[in-house]
Design goal:
Shape: globular
Helix content: 40-55%
Radius of gyration: 21 Å
Number of strands: 14
Largest sheet: 7 strands, parallel
Number of helices: 15
Length: 371
């Protein structure tokens, strides 16, 4: 098939394209390179300059492009698949539908469907970055909650509804996003794909974890995402432990690092500290697991049940309770053999559930079912 992946977050579509190509499909990625991450793209769709003039130039570039038509499948990364206002996005979306075959949504981030679920009193998640229980919101992140609720308002809210009504189906990257989409899409228009990881480019680390029984904790984060990812709390607790047990551990925190440079720094961690409020491991954790490193991330029982994994549970679950989190990290620091065991199991887990060809095949099977 001829496939267009439009927009990108955290290398998702760029990595998915690798798997699709290995399965024999022709794939074009058109994106802004995940902004500062500078991930691979075939057609660059970032704003050439800042402000309204940059938006106008990008819009005209897209309208004039012949590289966004003639595909069997188009998958947009989000309702906001390029950085333009809703009226222009709607015009582009309608052109995509006229000039291509089926158009799908890749659900891999916050949007109206996710926020509708989060603020609902019957939210199926026990907690998230925005709430501590259904209907009880986390006051520390109330500003972020209010900002993300803009997805539900005005032109962007109406445009999200328009996208949901007119796409031919949705593939989801995480358990949480799948739950959100289940509230508005019938089963036949929805499929879980997972987060793709290219294991051919991630070799097992060529060292023993926790050399001399000393643990190097690694925390990579985006500065402006610290609150909603919980990496502010994780960082504070890890710093406390590093000061209490300097002979047992060290801590390396990096922020806002381009993707390729980030991977080199990530490889030095024995325990990779990922995120706090998720039920599931994100890209950061899966990259480390693919290399054989131990990770602290989302790993709730609901996630393992959802993907049908009954035996291999290598992820150290990050529970959003400071006391529990402190004890969890400290116990692993004091027992490095447990970290080595978790690291050894992680690569098999990623190979089974997240290798890029596995995720690509999930997408192909679903797209074919909707043709």
């Amino acid at each position: 098939m001829k496939i267009l992946l439009l927009g990108d977050y955290s290398n998702y579509h760029a990595c998915l394209a690798v798997g699709l190509r290995r399965l024999g499909h022709y794939v074009t990625v058109a994106s802004d390179g995940s902004e500062w991450m500078n991930t691979d793209t075939d057609v660059y769709l970032g704003r050439p300059i800042a402000g309204r003039a940059g938006g106008a130039l990008l819009y005209l570039k897209i309208l004039a492009s012949n590289q966004l038509k003639g595909y069997d499948i188009v998958s947009i990364i989000s309702p906001s698949f390029v950085q333009l206002r809703p009226s222009r996005l709607k015009h582009i979306f309608d052109r995509l539908r006229r000039q291509n075959g089926k158009v799908f949504l890749s659900a891999i981030g916050t949007d109206k469907a996710f926020m509708d679920m989060i603020i609902s009193p019957d939210c199926p998640l026990r907690y998230s970055e925005f709430h501590t229980s259904p209907g009880v919101f986390y006051q520390k992140n109330i500003k972020e909650l209010q900002e993300n609720c803009r997805w539900q308002q005005g032109d962007i809210g109406r445009f999200c509804d328009y996208i949901y009504e007119h796409v031919d189906g949705v593939t989801t990257a995480l358990y949480e996003y799948h739950l959100a989409m289940q509230r508005i899409f019938p089963d036949e228009k929805l499929a879980y794909a997972g987060v793709p990881i290219d294991m051919k480019t991630i070799k097992p680390i060529d060292r023993q974890l926790c050399a001399d029984d000393k643990v190097n904790m690694f925390l990579g984060r985006i500065d402006y995402h610290k609150a909603i990812k919980g990496t502010d709390r994780i960082g504070e607790i890890a710093e406390t432990i590093a000061k209490e047990y300097p002979e047992k551990c060290s801590l390396d925190i990096v922020e806002n690092v381009p993707y390729n440079k980030y991977l080199k720094k990530l490889a030095k961690g024995d325990l990779v500290l990922d995120q706090l409020y998720s039920y599931t491991p994100g890209t950061n954790a899966l990259l480390a697991m693919a290399a054989g490193q131990a990770v602290l991330s989302g790993a709730e029982p609901e996630y393992y049940d959802f993907i049908g994994e009954n035996d291999n549970h290598p992820i150290i679950n990050a529970v959003p309770d400071d006391d529990v989190l402190y004890e969890t990290i400290k116990n692993y620091i004091l027992n490095p053999d447990n970290l080595r065991q978790a690291g050894a199991l992680g690569r098999d887990f990623v190979k089974k559930h997240n290798e890029t060809k596995v995720v690509a095949q999930h997408c192909i099977d679903f797209w074919n079912s909707r043709l």
